[in-house]
Amino acid sequence: MMTAANKKQRQDGLTASALCLLFYAFFGLLHEACHIVASRLWSSRDVGQYGVTPTDLLRALLGRYALIPTDDENCHDGECRWRRLLVVHSAWFFSVLLAVVCHAGHCQLERRGRSDSWLASPLLPYAAYITAMEAIATDLLGWIPQNSFAMTGAKFMICYCGNFGIILLNPGWLAIDGGRTALNVLEKMVEVTMMRGAQSGGVVTFEPTHYSSILPAYTSQTTAISSSSTSVPPSLRGIRSRTINAKRSTLSRRIVAKIKQDNCTPFLHNIRGWNKTEYNVNANRLIRAFFGHTRFATSSKASFDGTHPHLWSERRVYKIYHGSSTSYRMGVENYITHNGDFEFFKVNGKYYDVAVLQQWLQHVLQCPMPATVDSAAIAGVIDLIRTQGSFALSARYALCLEGEGVKVEAEPAKVYLTVEEYEMIASFFEDALEEMLRGGDDGVTKSLEDCSSNEMRNRLVSAVVKLLLNEIEKVSSAGASHSSTVRQTSKKASRAMAIEKLSQFIPRHIEQGSLAAFVRVTIDAFFDNDLLHSTRLFLENAKGSFGLCVVSSLDAWRQVCFAARGQTLSVAFYPKKGLICYGSEQAAVKAGLNYENPGGNIMSGTDKDADNAVRLDLDDLGGEICLLDWGSPDPAISPPNRSLKVNKVMNGSVSVVLLHQSKMFKGGTNLCKRMILLENNEFIKPLLDDFADPVLKDIHDIPRVCSQIQEDWHDVGLNRMTAWNLANCIRSRLKARIDGRIECHGGQVDILVTGCEVSLWVAENFVSDLQKSFPKLFIKAVSSNKLLGLFGQELAMPCTGFPYSQKSMDLNSDPIVIIVSHSGGTFGPLACSNLLQSFSSSIFAVTSEWDTQIGKQLRSMYSDDLLSSRIFSTECGVRPAEPCSVSVVATHQLLTNIFEHICITIISDPHFSHVSGTQITERDLQTLERCNQENIKALEEIVGVDRDGNEIHERRSQTERELRSAGDLWSEHILENAKAYIMSFIYIVATVTSGYPLITGIATAIGLKAEWAHHLTRFFDSLIYFWLPQINIIILRIFQGRNWRHRMVGRTVVIGDCPWVAQAAEAFLSKIFACSYSIAGLNVLSGNPSDHLVHRHTHRVVRGSLLVCGRPDGRLPALTSLEASCCLSVNQASSIQSIGGTCESITIGHNKSKLPLSHKAIYLKSHRPLFLSEKVLDDLDVQEDLARQRNEKLLEKNRRTSGTVVLRRAISALMDTARSVDRLEISLSRSRQAKVPRSSASLLGAYVNLEKEARRKRTQEGDNKLPDHVSDVISAMIKERQGIENARRFFNKMDPDGKGVVELKEFIEAYQNVDPTVTCGHLHQMFDEADIDEDGKLTFDEFLKVSKMPNLLAELAVKNRDHRGLVQVQASKERYFGEDLRKHVAPGVESFAMSASQHFSMELYESRIASMQRFVAMTVMFHQMGMRVQSFFPKISFGLLGYRMDRTHSIMRIATTASPVSGADVRERMDELRLMIEIDQSVRLICRTWKKWKAAQQRLTKTEAVVLPTLTE
User: Fold this and answer.
1) 319 touches 329 (CB < 8 A)
2) For an engineered disulfide with 410, which of 359, 539, 754, 1276 has Cβ 3.0 to 4.6 Å away?
């Protein structure tokens, strides 16, 4: 028997156990409650949306876990990540803290002797510690049990107390490292694709529903399917990962993180199934593929619902026929990714708007609209069309899209059938098909392939119609009694109801014919509507622009379909790596070049050309569909498309089937000729490696890139071949002008240059230089969007405010077109490359590399070889940084070389020079080329890195240090508000926590305790609190030595320079600060200081406005007035003051003089020889300096000797020496050292004085009493007239026979009599230069041209070809520009007068060289500003805050989306324009022929009128 003690001991044990369980459950409940509370507190949803239900409490109490919502659509990945971390880690921290508190309480109770309390029981801390250990194991260490619901794809995370794509053909991508390298490739593709604009993105991949077998678990006969069966398709489900990008996050990382969350195992992040036999067995293994998309919203906001990939109908199981004769129950879900615009869809011969189509699809598909975006409607249409293998889906397709009288209505009058009813209808087809497969009438067993023939389809139609008619007869004849009978069996009842509903859509008066048509369409769809044919049907009936990827769960194990029409799409094949990449951006598919297969190459050790990576670019102009099939050796193609050619790639493992929508496709049927070689191709540039600061990398690459462009231009390469073709086109154009085949009028266009944004601004500067060089040519720079609006739309878009219209621009005479687009993928220029093919056969492009979208279009237009090259390349490659620096400079550099080549082509032929009105000379080009070559040294000093990528010596980096110092100063202006905020925070926390504000603390410290003092100190402390931010800003400014009187507001930077520099620099700086925090924001404006800067922005000048202005090199007389006007603008802006403060201005230029009102002047070294005018002025400065020094010495000597006569003589001698300065040859080094910096006003006065002095010497002394300027003008006119008369007398002496013309022999003899030093060769070249009509004789007008060229002999020494015979501008080798001009000048001509001939070369130096240096200087300064601001926030927040200045919120480096002009009509307009131009040319030819015939008839009539009377007489 149990004693009382044992009973009590047992009772105490039971009590202890119960108490322990109670404590354990209680602490577990508290732990899970902490998870729930944390999730409610930190959720982005309304807290009231989730209430704590009894189920939650029971789950936490008994199951010790909690379900936490994770699919918050308003939550971005970066935000969700830290929220989940807070939810997960808050609970284990709380449990540990609770255990420590319980332990401390237990010890405290024991010390107090209260051990009899149940709170003092040791079970309490024991249970708390157990719970804490469990929490650490699950929440912190992540040892989650294997039955985690997180693997089920549910919309909850279980807290245990916790258009791009790739196809992975090689199992090594998964088996070796779990797919991590493959995800790196995908992330790199997203990074490049993001340049097209990306606000959201997503990826879909397919995996088996059961990993135990790649086959479905059950057939229609419910028998297990063997894994060895090769004809059974796998049952797949789609796993879609989507995310919306935040303002300062990186979309590529967010997408990959979302993929890892949805598709990878915890901790190791291996892709699920990476070690399963389904993906690793060579025979019948599955191929893993990822199909993704980044979205830049056009028709709606960037929402989660609008993010691709799109799925309209949720996964649903249907009966699917596949293989020989077996059917399976398989899930069906169709995903699409779409780039472009879906506008209309044609049903029954009528187009319907997408908005109506979306409403109609909800009724037809019996599914609500998943998103309002147009792309989601494509997924719905694909759900309707992709029906192969399913009679239920095929019947729906026939009834909704192909039925008689089908209409698309937002609110249909009839109720469409449900899925169950379609399946009932399908049962009749299935019965007939099963009977036919078993043998039917002939008793021969057949396969599905046998039944797909036209004969068998007819037999199947008859059988199905018979079954349906029997059922219809039963339903209609039986009436109510039959209905009550059939309701006894649910299947029969369902069939009857389905038949009744079907009969509503089939007219009864022609019931049998309509029924047969319905059955035929259903059967055809059952056999034909596979993935390829479905995509074809969609594109044939859809209107819009499409870059499309279509994939279905029924086909994803072996097929994917791509389509391009109006949007680009490329597919890259890597045979050695077993990888396929596709993407809308050509550069994105090159990501495979940057990574190696972790398992090694399939073709390791081979060097066969066939194994090199290649790329296929789909024809986006005419429209093209591409099917990739990696299944059995023969691709699965339905009968309508089996005539298409099957191409084998990837060593025969992948079949490529191409379907062209346009008959105008010029690519041919040979796929190999269309492939672009990606490996071992010198024209293909791999993607750049990732850099921590892409903007700085771009800036440092500027000297190297410009140097490479110049070196490449002097070699026989791609750019030289393109230049040769351009020169041929220019010659043909000018010959047509000379022959009169081209009319000359104001609307004519000889050279048309087009582009968008920065490329257009640089192109406009190029056009201005070209137009000034050849004023008689018609050269225009027009925005690509304006060209699309005028010529690419059905209804032309007027260019209000611009002189462009279809009538004012005559493009029908085959103009030369130069498209400037550094990315080569911007929508406007790309669409123009297609559109302008209707107007011109001479289209050229300036891009970043040979392999761009525009390059692809031009290669398709011309034969794909170097001899017909139309692409100028800067060889910069893809630059992902959105603030453009190196791309702008490289484009400007390349256009400089193109400018030189065009000029040398025209001026090499006298006839071309005459018809173009040439103003530029070969010596101007020599000067420009010398400055161009010396420019590299200047760029190296500005960026601080040489052309080889090495940092330059400290002695040469002074310019860069000054620029970065100015950037540091302005960054302090921008950051002062943030720093003052932090200082205020520290002060408030410190003073409030301690209870001693500043004044009160001081009063307390000195012992002031009176009541009145208490209130007084509190009053002053309150004032300090109120003015605390302003006080802190003043303290910062004083401490940093900045102007403390600036306004305490957000800063504004105004950029002043020539138009292209100001606009490009504004775009650069505004993008640098696009993602900065509002407390460090920046407003950026720009203007032209020589035009409208004062008018546009001086009214905005406030204390603290920041003005940076580029100063032209006013040391050159052609630019002196321009610099003076810029300095005046800066002074006017800087003179506006308030409270002693004004704007802070910085000037950047090549003149060392500093403006008195500017804050700082940054000097850029010229690295070029002096021009003649500078040499004259420098010599004058040196001579005056010498005279001054001698004068001072003589004055000192005079003081000693008190002799005045000697002083007068010395001064007179020195003044005479100064007047004859032009005859002095002082060394350049001495001139450089002696030169004193002059202001713009001083330079202007000096050059005006020199000009007046030169004019005075040219003017004869007379008694003219008129004012000086009138006298000078009249004297100049008289002088010019006298020169003409002198030339007439000299011409008459050379023409002794008085014929009025001079032959070559007479010309040489006469000229050598005057100057025997001139060679016959020079005189022969001079004669040819003047002989415009090439008749071997000079008229007086032609001779007059020779007489007006005093420096012609100097020009004769210029060569325009190098030692290899290439047309090449030779750089000047003069010590100073004009040295040879001085040597060959006629006696008596002033040096400064000769320098006037250099004014145009000075303007070119400013436009092509100096302005580029100022732009680069601004990028260096602005980069330093941005980097200081960017690095400030991570430092103060320990890495929690931060952003990247190399990107903006839109992430649109390349504007590939139609904006603002749509390109949907370009393809149709091309055909119309081509036809219109052909008709117009034919009409003109007929008119010319008729006029010639009429003139001939008139001449014949006149001849007959004269001859006949004579014969009669």
Assistant:
1) yes
2) 359
Q: SS3 letters for 351-362?
A: EEEHHHHHHHHH
Residue 336, beta-bridge partner list? 310, 550
pLDDT in tens, 527-586: 999 999 999 999 999 988 899 999 999 999 899 999 998 888 999 999 999 999 999 888
Spatial separation of the C-alpha atoms in residues 575 and 649, rounded to whole Å: 8
Cross-strand pairs, 1111: 1149
| Whether residue 70 has pLDDT greater than 80 | no
CA-to-CA dists, residue 833 to 793, 857, 873, angstroms: 15, 7, 16
Distance CA 1291, CA 1303 (A): 11
Q: Which residues pair with 328 in a beta bridge?
A: 320
Contacts of residue 592, Cβ cutoff 8 Å, sequence gap at least 6: 166, 185, 572, 574, 577, 579, 581, 613
Rg over alpha carbons for the chain, rounded to the nearest Å, is 42
Contact indicator for 834, 1470 with CB cutoff of 8 Å: yes
What is the three-state SS of 529-563? CCHHHHHHHHHHHEEEEEEEEEEECCCCCCEEEEE
Give the Cα separation of 186 and 201 in Å (integer).
Answer: 12
Reported as a pLDDT band with limits 50, 70 and 90, residue 53 is low
Tell me the pLDDT tens digit for each residue of 708-759: 999 989 887 889 889 999 999 999 999 998 888 888 888 889 999 999 989 9
Tell me if 854 sits within 8 A of 873, measured CB to CB.
no
461 to 57, 63, 115, 394, 763: CA distances (angstroms): 61, 59, 91, 14, 65
- pTM for the model stands at 0.77
Per-position DSSP letters for 385-421, written without gaps between them: H--TT-HHHHHHHHHHTSSTT----SS-SSPPPPHHH
Q: Where does residue 407 fall: left (phi above 0), alpha (psi -120 to 50 degrees), or beta otherwise?
A: beta
156: Cβ contacts below 8 Å, ≥ 6 apart: 67, 68, 69, 70, 149
Q: What does 1258-1309 look like in DSSP terms, one character per residue?
A: HSPP----S-HHHHHHHHHHHHHHHHHHHHHHHHHHH-TT-SS-EEHHHHHH
Please state, in angstroms and rounded to a whole number, the distance separating the CA atoms of residues 659 and 481: 56
Contacts of 87 (CB under 8 A, 6+ apart): 35, 38, 39, 42, 68, 159
| Cβ atoms < 10 Å from Cβ of 126 | 17
**Which three-class secondary structure state does DSSP give residue 565?**
strand
